[in-house]
Amino acid sequence: MNFKAKEIAEFLNGEVVGNGEVKVSNVSKIEEGKPGTLAFLAKAKYESYIYNTKASIVLVNRTFVPKKEINSTLIKVDDAYEAFANLLNLYVEARAIAKVGIEQPSFIDKSTTYGENIYVGAFAYVGKNSKIGKNVKIYPQVHIGENVTIGDNCTFYAGAKIYDDSVIGNNCTIHASAVIGADGFGFAPQKDGTYKKIPQIGNTVLEDNVEIGANTTIDCGTMGSTIIRKGAKIDNLVQIAHNCDIGENTVMAGQTGLAGTTKVGKNCQFGGQVGLGGHLNVGNNVSLGAQSGLVRDVKDGEVLFGSPAIPIKDALRSMSVYKKLPTLQRDVARLQKEIKEIKNK
pLDDT tens digit string along 58-82? Predict the structure, then answer.
């Protein structure tokens, strides 16, 4: 589809600077801009690209003042990055609307109910007594087990696996090959050195507006529920163990791992490869830097870094000292030698 600059500006409440009739049909990075595409400039460090880009339209902040001539049509908005994200959301929604109907071969048990405008891709499977809302998109090879409840406007990308008894709210997105509700890691050691599996009879609950990344795994509760609360965003390759409770609007970057029964508060931010021990309580608005390892409870608002994680200012000071350890070691060895020589006189 082609859109004119003036149409895009109207949608974004923006101001056109240049040719309002110019049309675009795709998007591009500003440094790789091509005719017929729309790009955006949100950070000053990329400003040099706007003077040479071939993109037909560029979104810029209202405060942007060019230093020289620009060939592209500009659309000035309050926040160029947010405006670009809104356009991408509109594009994705338009594509999703076209996905309607049940492809064959696929299987939906007769006891399962589903709402209008559902899409089920080929080789998808939906088990007994499940309830699926309206406008749900289930891509090929998705498995949805028995007694699963799914709200409206959810998307399950190819190969996602939803185990029995899971509950998923409205407007959730589960990316490819994510696994929701697998058994937690529960094994009782035996006298002969073997391990006996502890049955995992709980479930997993995802509240509204949750997004789960590709290949992420969220275990069911041993008893009770593992809960991902509304608005939480979980990146790819994250492991959340049994009976964890993740607070509203908390975000976790890739390869983060949580051991069982850990509770995380609201609006927390975890960098990549963060690791949390089990049975911990993490407060609200906590930030953990990449590769941090947490082994204690954390109060509201703490910003931690390192392994074991400590306040970030202390961690940065420690890193500064750590870099100097070879020199310090040589200095200590030299002083020890001098002291020994003095004593021997």
Answer: 999 999 999 999 999 999 999 999 9
